[in-house]
Every structure is written in structure tokens, then in C-alpha cells.
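Narrative of activities, Objective 1.

The group set out to show that a structural description can be obtained from nothing but a protein's sequence at a throughput compatible with the screening campaign. Below is one input-output pair from the validation batch, recorded exactly as produced.
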Amino acid sequence: FNNIGYKGMIALSEGLKINTTLQLITLDYNNIGDEGMIALSQGIMLNNGLHEISLIYNNIGEEGMKILGKALEINNTIVDIDLSCNLFESKGCIYLADVLRNNKSIEIMNLSNNRIGSEGCCILSEGLKVNSTLIKLCLGHNYIGWDMTDAFIDFVVSDRSEERRVGKECL
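Output recorded for this entry:
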């Protein structure tokens, strides 16, 4: 467990703005929070080399997701993002649905353990209707009702190619 926080994210963001060789960054358990996510998102937005980013357990809430969502809509190199175990709940899904609508590079997204519930699942499905790049979405441990789970799986399976995977192991 680290505590990089806001000041560390400012420094890291500045580095991401100019670094084009870094392809993977793992920032798990760093207590980034919304304020730190706002700082880091500036670097993510302007970086054109990063392919994978992991932000597990960072206390990222709705405000952090709002600015990260904007950065991910612009970034066209990230293919894998792990946002599991944060605090954004269903309201954060509003910004992720926009990412799913507008980002053309993300193939894997892990949103497990964020308490998005059935409401968040519905919001995400709106973004998935027009998304053509996502092939794996993990939604485990999000308090999604079984009725919504089955409907969501039916939607993804019936409306997408066989490559797409939202299986019960991810719910």
C-alpha cells in the first residue's frame, strides 16, 4: 500500500505527457482519489504510448471517473484498463458509457467491485450498443440483480461477434 496521492500524480502526469515508450503502468493501492485522478488524467489524455493501465483500489469516485472518462475518450492507445475496487458506483458509469461510445481502442475493461448495481449496468449497456472494440468486460461483485445479469449477457451475446466475452465468470 502506497500513498502517492495528488502530488505524486501531478509528477507522474507530467512524465506521461512526454514519455512515448512506457506501455504498461500499474498504480494499484496508491490512494489516488478523485483529486489525484484529475491530475493523472491529463497525462493519460496526452500520452500516445500507454497500452495498459491498472488503477485497482484507488478510491476513485464519481468526480475522478468524470475526468478520467474525458481522457479515455481522447486517448487512442490504451487497450486494457482495470478500474476494479474503486468507489464510483452507478454514477461513474455515466462517464464510462461515454468512453464505450467514443473510444476506439479499449478492448478489455475491468469494473469489478464498484457497486454499480443494475442501474450502472443499464447505463453501460447504452455505451455498448455502439461500441465495436471491447472484447472483454468484467463486472463481478457489483450488486447486479440476476434479471439484469441475464438481460445484459443476452444483449451482448446477441448483438456482438463471437469474440466478445461477458461471461458469468466476469459477473
